[in-house]
Amino acid sequence: MIVVAIIGVVASIAYPSYQGYISDTYRTQAASDLKACGMALERFYSNDFTYIGADTNTICNTNSPTDGVAQYIITYESLTATAYSIRATPVGESCSGDNCIQLSQTGYQTTL
User: Fold this and answer.
1) Can you list the positions of beta strands (E) in 22-64?
2) CA angle at residue 51 from 46 to 56, to 5 degrees?
3) What residue numbers bound the domain in which 42 lies?
4) Bridge partners, residue 66, by sequence
5) Burial code of 50-79, b = ≥16 C-beta within 10 A, e = fewer?
6) Quick one: which of 22, 50, 90, 99 is 20 to 30 A from 64 by CA?
7) CA-CA distance, 98 to 112, in Å (whole number)?
8) Which residue, 45, 100, 44, is CA-closest to 77?
9) Sheet of 84-90: strands edge to edge?
10) How many CB atoms lie within 10 A of CB 40?
11) Phi and psi at residue 14, in whole multiples of 5°?
12) How far apart are CA 58 and CA 55, in angstroms?
């Protein structure tokens, strides 16, 4: 009985830590996918000399991670001839605190 109680205490401490680790991993993956989308937009710009018209799902994958269950959604916030802004938002959540990641054409990444 004591062993079961000890396992319960250890599990109650370890599980929230594990959930935090998983959340951080998905966030890091979303930042990586956002940068990959930025590179795809730059390739589009180098061919057409504009970002306008790049807002299709063929340029960027809109789910992060790209396989499995999506944890973040990548959206185009703005596309102009010379600038873009893309954002990764957690599925089912709005941007609050620092749970969203935004990337601009300058390569500047911010959390929202």
Assistant:
1) 63-64
2) 110
3) 2-111
4) none
5) ebeebbeeebbbbbbbeeeebbbbbbbeeb
6) 50
7) 5
8) 100
9) 63-64, 72-79, 84-90, 101-104, 109-111
10) 15
11) -75, -35
12) 8
Q: Which residues contact 97 (CB under 8 A, 6 or more apart)?
A: none
Neighbours of 11 (CB within 10 A): 10
Provide the CB-side half-sphere exposure for 104 (13 A, CA). 7
Extract the tokens encoding 21.
């680790």
Count of the separate structural domains present in the chain: 1
Return the structure tokens found at 37. 């989308």
